[in-house]
Amino acid sequence: MRQIIQQIKQYKRDTFLCIGLTTLEVLMEILLPFITAMLIDQGLEASSMPVVYRYGILMIVMAFLSLLFGALAGKFAASASTGLAANLREAIYANIQTFSFSNIDKFSVPGLVTRMTTDITNVQNAFMMIIRVATRAPLTLVFSFIMCLIINPHLSGMFLIAVVFLGIVLAIIMKVTLKIFNDVFHRYDDLNASVQENISAIRVVKAFVREDYENQKFSKASAMLYKMFVKAESILTVNAPAMMVAVYFCIISVSWLGAQFIVGGTLSTGDLTSLFSYIMSMLMSLMMVSMVVVMISISLASIRRIGEVLRETPDLKNPENPVEEVKDGSIDFNHVTFSYKHGSGKSALMDIDLHIRSGETIGIIGGTGSGKSSLANLISRLYDVDEGSVCVGGLDVRKYDMEALREQVSVVLQKNTLFSGSILENLRWGNPNATEEECIEACKAACADEFIDRMPEGYHTRIERGGNNVSGGQKQRLCIARALLKNPKVLILDDSTSAVDTATDAKIRKAFAEKIPGTTKIIIAQRISSVEGADRILVLDDGRINGFDTHENLLKTNAIYQDIYESQIKGGGDFDQPA
Asked: What is the reported pTM?
């Protein structure tokens, strides 16, 4: 809760103004029945029109002030609550940007989306209720009760009985529903996951005619959410009959006892009239309190989920005095062991001892799950090792400033991503200050100029969200060009040419040798043809080094490499290469 309140920041003034104006609004409303009682007793019953006019004008002024204070309080409540929601979204988004891959692995993408949308909206609504209604209702309740005590202390005891009864009912409702709402938001994550997965893979769904299956899966998640909401709302509806019991108890008891006091001469007609006004004010306040309790019950689950993201601290941090410059592209793995879940006992890499000279071209090959991508992730410090050390430029990567390291270690990941905007805007992710000529040169090296020149608007062609208007091979080449614009000391291609034909793949590798000879190039691939021209080739098997030598030597000495070569080359060649 403290983390949420800290995000009010510049909207503290609006929050306090709302609370102050709401207090003034309540004071005006509380004094109105008191003035009404005096108007009846001193004006109407005494047949004094000057007194009626005087108190009548005073009541009109107070009513106008109450309206003015209420309108201003509503304005400041809206400003403070929407401001809090905006700050929360910014805080969550900013914190997510600092997360390492291991932090992101703890939260599902749909879960993070739900926190930034549904959960924050719940908190926004609850905060508005708290500073507006939760301020107004208790003040009205307290001030009304004080006025009742002033008018007749004996009748005021009836209200205390009603308040205690409702307090017990609301506490039970809140305790039960809070647990249900916690489960509800986990179901929201499942529902969002189903929608996101279906939409992002809609082509696959249609290709395999799985619409009915996906509909059933979504309907099942939606039905579960429906049942849980019905259960929670059913419990919350107990609030309404409990409220009516309290209302009728107060009205009947005050009517019965008040009539006796009037007959006995200890209570005036005006006082009884004002008592009924205060009764209704108090009971309406209790009704508002119950609404706030319901909203808080819902928002507490959201607050907890938002707090989980805000409290999450990055697993990877810069050292106290980070090194800002990478000397060269040399890479050393010194007996490295790594697992994605520390302490799980299941290692992705085991005892990797590997030394790469600056400017070398290294191919990495191996079966699925052999640890190729894991090894690449450690070079740019997307994860930290469990044992041993990874050095770039002769220095442990944990001693570098992470931004400085990643500026010099450019990675084209296995999953290529483009963003909405022109081709030039996407390329300049690699270098925001790159000129159009530099972008063209990078595209030539990545063989992307071939298809860009055929586009109607050339380099100003708009890329749709996710790069849906370009093919997989075109997307890969644009991502390679984007990485080249960083002019890195180390370039890692993580299976980044899998969607291009072998002829284009060969052109890209030739361009690398000519354009960036001093850059260390790590080429992770499934095809022998992509790595056979490398200075040395690393063969990985089940997280361990199985071989590290030239293409020719591995063909003579390494059984795994021989099997891959035979299945690809002698078995008919790559998909577009003659046998």
From this structure: 0.64
Instruction: Examine the pLDDT at 353 and tell me if it is beyond 60.
Output: yes
**pLDDT band, residue 549 (cuts 50/70/90):** very high
CA nearest to 356, candidates 335, 379, 331: 331
574: pLDDT confidence band, cut at 50, 70 and 90?
Answer: very low
Residues 6+ apart with CB under 8 A from 442: 427, 430, 434, 481, 482, 484, 485
Amino acid at 91: A
Number of H helices, E strands in the chain: 22, 12
Separation between Cα atoms, residue 513 and residue 519, nearest integer Å? 9
* pLDDT mean across residues, the chain: 82
In the chain, what's the furthest Cα-to-Cα distance? 120
SS (H, E, C) 102-154: HHHHHCCHHHHHHHHHHHHHHHHHHHHHHHHHHHHHHHHHHHHHHHHHHHCHH
Q: In what order do the strands lie in the sheet with 331-338?
A: 349-356, 331-338, 387-392, 395-396
DSSP code, position 266: S
CB 459 within 8 A of CB 440: yes
Looking at the chain, the whole-number percentage of residues with pLDDT higher than 70 is 93
- Give the Cα separation of 399 and 167 in Å (integer): 58
